[in-house]
Amino acid sequence: MDMAEDGGEGSARRLQVRFVTKLNEPFKVPSTAIAIPADLNRFGLSSLVNALLQSNDDDYKPEPFDFLIDGEFVRMPLEQFLLAKGISAERILEIEYTRVVAPRKEEDPCLHDDWVSAVDGSSSRFFLTGCYDGLGRVWKDAGLCTHILEGHSDAVTSVSVINSTGMETVTVATASKDRTLRLWKLNTEEPIKHPIRIRAYKILRGHKSAVQSVAAQTSGEMVCSGSWDCTINLWQTSDFNAEDDLVSKKRKVGGQVEDSQIEGEAFSTLVGHTQCVSSVAWPQRETIYSASWDHSTRKWDVETGKSLTDIFCGKVLNCLDVGGEGSALIAAGGSDPILRVWDPRKPTTSAPVFQFASHTSWVSACKWHDKSRFHLLSASYDGSVMLWDLRTAWPLSVIKSHSDKVLSADWWKSDSVISGGADSKLCISSEIPVQ
């Protein structure tokens, strides 16, 4: 079959191709080989696939596609791509197509009273934000704040859901510049018309300087925190029988009876960083990862408290996350526009296996997608959030919802991105078709 339609491009030379996809109906085209112009780029290829789909279904609505050849995204005209990769143009070329990973919808922003410095979207039922006004907030959706977490005396720098799966009552943690962490319990299932103000059930004291990051162990039994005092502290989320005792423990404040708050001390401290510990992650029960202003990321053994591996990159690091293939890749960003990814399973070199360099200012946040080994996001002081795929060096999508620095970002419900910024907004970009 010879396809004359070429999406507005033409060429004397033609290639024999077969389009394949992992997408379900209505996105499947016939698998027969067709001849197409050799100079088609991704937009021309997208027009062509949409024309094929429309020819089989009058109700089909066109949408943009991305294309891969031998597992790599095509970001130049076909003929140029084949030449650059040393791929023969004489064989029938198999081209995989997939939906473009970009938001289809922008929700109304959730307004805060100050900078939105922290977000956590790990629960599909709600998301958390932390703000420079000293408050944490729980949101059921855009514009629907259900709980206000009050008690910190300075900016909230980090928030983390400790456990939420299959439970009405969830536990969350907040970290603050006031040198403390606080643990909270709340019911996210009860219908709420106005935000409920709640107090922490436990205050964790021990850091000698501002706490910059908090992360929960997968079991929810412990949290760890990174601080400007260069240490990582480990904390228990509850004492023996503490939750039972809390029901009967009361105190009078301003003539009103309130639940008491326990104070907790760190049961272990990890020492080794020489500058601020800016980010911590706890992806496996026995292993903690950290990033620091001392230019290093470290992997820690929880049981021994020893640093197992150190990776130095020569830059101040602001953020870190662990995920990707085998949940083993370390992504980190800092005081230059580059998002770096290391594979610690390759111990012979500390060089990143991927570097993404499309931002124009410091990288403030990075996060792997929870269901894809290829996809991750980054946020930057340049005001943008970028979506990345390890199979191409260019961003899949650039989200420009903020009018100032983006300070925090996360995935939510696997198909949305939530981001907080110095414009005091929490923005939600949704309907992102990540495969």
From TrEMBL:
<dbReference type="InterPro" id="IPR015943">
    <property type="entry name" value="WD40/YVTN_repeat-like_dom_sf"/>
</dbReference>
<dbReference type="InterPro" id="IPR012972">
    <property type="entry name" value="NLE"/>
</dbReference>
<feature type="repeat" description="WD">
    <location>
        <begin position="149"/>
        <end position="194"/>
    </location>
</feature>
<protein>
    <recommendedName>
        <fullName>Ribosome biogenesis protein WDR12 homolog</fullName>
    </recommendedName>
</protein>
<dbReference type="InterPro" id="IPR028599">
    <property type="entry name" value="WDR12/Ytm1"/>
</dbReference>
<feature type="repeat" description="WD">
    <location>
        <begin position="270"/>
        <end position="310"/>
    </location>
</feature>
<dbReference type="GO" id="GO:0000466">
    <property type="term" value="P:maturation of 5.8S rRNA from tricistronic rRNA transcript (SSU-rRNA, 5.8S rRNA, LSU-rRNA)"/>
</dbReference>
<feature type="repeat" description="WD">
    <location>
        <begin position="356"/>
        <end position="398"/>
    </location>
</feature>
<keyword id="KW-0698">rRNA processing</keyword>
<keyword id="KW-0677">Repeat</keyword>
<comment type="function">
    <text>Required for maturation of ribosomal RNAs and formation of the large ribosomal subunit.</text>
</comment>
<feature type="domain" description="NLE">
    <location>
        <begin position="15"/>
        <end position="82"/>
    </location>
</feature>
<dbReference type="GO" id="GO:0000463">
    <property type="term" value="P:maturation of LSU-rRNA from tricistronic rRNA transcript (SSU-rRNA, 5.8S rRNA, LSU-rRNA)"/>
</dbReference>
<dbReference type="GO" id="GO:0030687">
    <property type="term" value="C:preribosome, large subunit precursor"/>
</dbReference>
<keyword id="KW-0853">WD repeat</keyword>
<dbReference type="InterPro" id="IPR019775">
    <property type="entry name" value="WD40_repeat_CS"/>
</dbReference>
<keyword id="KW-0690">Ribosome biogenesis</keyword>
<comment type="similarity">
    <text>Belongs to the WD repeat WDR12/YTM1 family.</text>
</comment>
<feature type="repeat" description="WD">
    <location>
        <begin position="204"/>
        <end position="236"/>
    </location>
</feature>
<dbReference type="InterPro" id="IPR036322">
    <property type="entry name" value="WD40_repeat_dom_sf"/>
</dbReference>
<dbReference type="Pfam" id="PF00400">
    <property type="entry name" value="WD40"/>
</dbReference>
<dbReference type="Pfam" id="PF08154">
    <property type="entry name" value="NLE"/>
</dbReference>
<dbReference type="GO" id="GO:0005730">
    <property type="term" value="C:nucleolus"/>
</dbReference>
<dbReference type="InterPro" id="IPR020472">
    <property type="entry name" value="WD40_PAC1"/>
</dbReference>
<dbReference type="GO" id="GO:0043021">
    <property type="term" value="F:ribonucleoprotein complex binding"/>
</dbReference>
<dbReference type="GO" id="GO:0005654">
    <property type="term" value="C:nucleoplasm"/>
</dbReference>
<dbReference type="InterPro" id="IPR001680">
    <property type="entry name" value="WD40_rpt"/>
</dbReference>
<keyword id="KW-0539">Nucleus</keyword>
